[in-house]
Amino acid sequence: MTTKSVKTGTAASVDYLLEARNIVKKFGDFAANDDVTLKLVPGEIHALLGENGAGKSTLVKIIYGSLQPTSGELRWMDTVTVVANPAAARKLGIGMVFQHFSLFEALTVAENIALAMPDDVDLAELSDRIAKVSVEYGLPLEPTALVADLSVGERQRIEIVRCLLQEPRLLIMDEPTAVLTPQEADQLFVTLNRLAGEGCAVLYISHRLEEVKQLCHDATILRHGKVVAQVDPQKETAASLARLMVGADVHSIKAQKAAKAKSPVLEISDLSLPADGPFGVALKNIQLDVCEGEIVAIAGVAGNGQSEFFDVLSGERRCLTEDAVKISGAACGTAGVTARRQMSAAFVPEERLGHGAVPGFMLSENVILTRHSSDGGMARGGFINQTAARDINTRVTERFDVRKAKADPEARPLSGGNLQKFVVGRELDRNPKVLVVNQPTWGVDAGAAALIRQALIDLARSGACVLVISQDLDEIFEVSDRIAVISRGELSQAYPAGDLTLEQIGLMMAGAHETGGGQSREAVA
Amino acid sequence: MGALEAVILTIITASTPLLLAAVGELVVERSGVLNLGVEGMMVMGAVCGFAAAYTSGSPYLGIAAGITAGIGMSLLFAFLTQSLVSNQVATGLALTLLGLGLSGLIGEAFTGLPGVKLPKIWIPVLTDIPFIGPILFGQDILVYVSIALTIAVAHVLFKTRIGLVIRAVGGNHHSAHALGYNVIAVRYACIAFGGACAGLAGAYLSLAYTPQWIENMTAGRGWIALALVVFSTWLPRRLAIGAYLFGTVWIMGLYVQGLGIGIPSQFLSSLPYLVTIVALVVISGNRTLTKVNTPACIGQPFVPDR
Asked: In this structure, are residues A440 and A470 in contact, taking their beta carbons and an 8 Å threshold?
């Protein structure tokens, strides 16, 4: 069965399994990849590092056949090869696990896998093969389960099993651990090491330098579309890798300890809410107080109720009882977003384009959208004061270093990091008493992330209470005074950040604190 | 022929065009495309079917012409919405307006002419059985086609790889594209199938239901077919129930009016809509099942990156 899953042997006769030589990919005038060369050896786990926009995804899409290079060539086992499309890549033996999974929620596990198979397959027979491979590699999966009902970790397993069934020689993993608990990540590393041991090459994209050091044999670092270094990650430190990626030392964050806890400003008590549809998560009896001057972080794996929790705090969804949420002692559980903003609360949602900002609106118009009622004079008697909005926009973009082509551009063309700085800055500029922010630095480069985190800390130290919902544990440890963990709609007690280790948080993320007492189905031996 | 037998026969002929048009649109929507032009494709099928049958004398050539007209209209829609990425709702509405206008123009020469009626089949012995015979074994060929087509669509959608790909494309076109499926090509094919079905439904009206050409003779049946698809939660079995329920209540309403019972005719005309909506809402009460069967990408344009 081992030989059936992964082809070995044939690769031994060639020097490189895959060579990407002098790859250039241009979008208009912009070179996403500029003369990139990458060499992969059978059996090695090769890291591809770089900030957002460094060109990692472009390179990987070219290798997987989703994009065609402007110039340069791919050599597969010493032969020049044109990978016309993903189907051709799979035929060669290239499998890919996407960061945003390419799964179909309304289909079963077996149907999802059948779609990636080159020929028509019998679903019953395929289910047997899935069961076999998943047992062999320690990736338990139920072939008849509907994807919509599965956790993120389980969904990733589908993608991996899907690749394994095609007997890959090269497996591309795009930020696979971004959505996993530390324990799930460890399990994944076992699987990847085993694959590498069988001769399969792994191209591993990650932001997490510690895990690259732990797992990878070789690393290629991209910056602004160019290869800046190829290093042995075992011989580097996380700091030296970060320096190569960013091209400068990353600004470190100054976090003074919070003063002694004072009175709570944001009080959440007995907050329960049914799920809004079959793919939603129900919130169960959440209790949390956030005091002035402190930052409380909510950790958890994506899809465990974070967005529902945010929505119910911001007022996009109303609580069932008035008293479930109190701001400065005033009950506002059934109040809407505007009413809560008028109580000096501010909210930054996870999705910046489309939720936090209207893509086709100018930045000043986006300022009006969240601040029309809380800042007197912005909208008076039904008329908009555009001068005031523009002034705020200028202030925010200067203070938060939002780089833009003109004074008041539309939100759409801004890069992720710049738009996030604007969306966070727009709320911080109000000096709110309460700030709730979901995924403050998701998909943002290191420089912008440091700036945003520092701003959050500064706001808290000036006396506001800040609630950060995040999946990035490094970020959580960097900014927070207390940490609570959300798992399937249940929130743990908030512990002082210094009292928790990464392992403890990982166990809580997997559901160890749940009142059901049961072991999570994620806990895999 | 007894009264009941006549009622049942009318119900079947009234329901068949709805089922034909709706089962085609179901496949289109399962692939993630919303084609609001069903009415336009149907009426073009009706006029072209009538014209070809009248000119040639063969109802079967008429059927072929109706299908061809429906496919032609749908390919226009496919080109605009898939290749040029125009708005599907606006394009679908325009297709209906185009179909109604164009069919009036083509049909002007054929108004009031006697049509060629699609013959009913006759099987010795079986069709001669009283009551059951004419109902089960004495329909025209398209009645059987519509039922076979519904069963075939259900089988293909849920039991074959082609159907899996169609559902995948409608459920998440980005993922389907990433897996290497040609989203646009799958949608073209589904749109063309939907056009063929709508054209066939139109031809049924002008060749079997009332064998003549009258302007706007589809009279909103395309819109009813569209509504049936949604209310059936994109399941062929429910679609068949919905189409026949609608036909039944509709024809019963006409008979009741004929009897002169003191129910306002407006109420009777609106009854099929009410009954069908209530019935389909009741059977689609399982929200999880509804969510799973709803094509998530419906109406969304797809542009592959290059």
From this structure: yes
Q: How far apart are the first and last CA of chain A?
A: 21
Report chain B residues touching chain A, CB-CB < 8 A.
161, 164-165, 167-168, 171-172, 174-176, 178-181, 287-288, 291-294, 296, 305-306
> What are the helix and strand counts (H, E) for chain A?
17, 23
Kindly report the number of other CB atoms within 10 A of residue A344's CB atom: 17
The pLDDT tens digits for A291-345 are: 999 999 999 877 788 889 999 999 999 988 889 999 999 999 899 999 999 999 9
Residue B178 neighbours by CB under 8 Å, 6+ apart: A66, A86, A98, A102
Does the predicted model carry a pTM greater than 0.90? no
Average pLDDT on B107-128 reads: 89
Closest to B25 (Cα-Cα) out of B298, B302, B301: B298
Contacting residues of B for A120, CB less than 8 Å apart? 161
Question: How does A206-226 read in b/e, with b if 16+ C-beta sit within 10 Å?
Answer: bbbbebbbebbbbbbbbbebe
Residues of A in contact with B164 (CB under 8 A): 107, 111, 114-115
Cα–Cα distance for residue pair A46/A61, rounded to 1 Å: 16
User: CA of B90 to nearest chain A CA: how many angstroms apart?
Assistant: 21
Tens-place pLDDT, residues B131-177? 888 888 889 999 999 999 999 999 999 999 999 999 999 999 988 98
ipTM score assigned to the predicted complex: 0.84
Q: Does residue A46 contact residue A218 with C-beta atoms inside 8 Å?
A: yes
A104–B172 C-beta distance less than 8 A: yes
Q: How big is chain A, counted in residues?
A: 525
Chain B contact for A86, CB < 8 A? Answer: yes
Domains and CATH numbers, chain A: 2-245 (3.40.50.300), 264-509 (3.40.50.300)
